[in-house]
């Protein structure tokens, strides 16, 4: 019988250790939001500066050098693109402006010739392309 009683007491200890979380009621409720009123406010720059202390000195120096070279490269690329665009556009204007003016002048001369033909020969001649009108044939 002793073995049955030992099993019963072992079962009770197992049941006590496997109690559900619902049965547990703490004396003090844990705080969901910590109290930050006593800490001074810090800016984003101060926080980032504080984070730099967790990296070793060579890593900080390398990241600083990389950021400086990146900034210098971006400025150089911007200045180069400004100069290159100025050269391309000013050269194209100088080279193509005479061609554009010559084409415009040729169109104006053609329009003036068309107007002269229309005034001299009538409205049908300017539309037909300057061909001479055909004489109607004589009936026999």
From TrEMBL:
Keyword Transmembrane: yes
GO cellular component: mitochondrial outer membrane
Compartments, record wording: Mitochondrion outer membrane
Spans through the membrane: 84-103
Membrane topology: Single-pass membrane protein
InterPro entries on file: Tom22 (IPR005683)
Compositionally biased tracts (Acidic residues): 33-43
An individual GO BP term: intracellular protein transport
Bias kind Polar residues: ranges: 10-22
Pfam assignment, any one: Tom22
Keyword Transmembrane helix recorded: yes
Keywords assigned: Membrane, Mitochondrion, Mitochondrion outer membrane, Protein transport, Receptor, Translocation, Transmembrane, Transmembrane helix, Transport
Region (Disordered): 1-43
Family: Belongs to the Tom22 family.
Name of the featured protein: Mitochondrial import receptor subunit TOM22 homolog
Organism per entry: Henosepilachna vigintioctopunctata
Taxonomic placement: Eukaryota, Metazoa, Ecdysozoa, Arthropoda, Hexapoda
């Amino acid at each position: 019988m002793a073995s049955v009683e030992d099993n019963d007491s072992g079962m009770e200890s197992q049941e006590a250790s496997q109690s559900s979380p619902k049965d547990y009621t703490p004396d003090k409720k844990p705080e969901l939001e910590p109290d930050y009123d006593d800490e001074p406010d810090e800016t984003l720059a101060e926080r980032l500066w504080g984070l730099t202390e967790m990296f070793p000195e060579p890593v900080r120096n390398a990241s600083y050098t990389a950021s400086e070279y990146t900034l210098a490269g971006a400025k150089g690329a911007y200045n180069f693109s400004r100069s290159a665009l100025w050269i391309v556009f000013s050269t194209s204007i100088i080279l193509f402006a005479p061609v554009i003016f010559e084409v415009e002048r040729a169109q104006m001369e053609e329009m003036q010739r068309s107007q002269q033909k229309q005034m001299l020969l009538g409205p049908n001649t300017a539309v037909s392309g300057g061909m001479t009108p055909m004489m109607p044939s004589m009936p026999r």
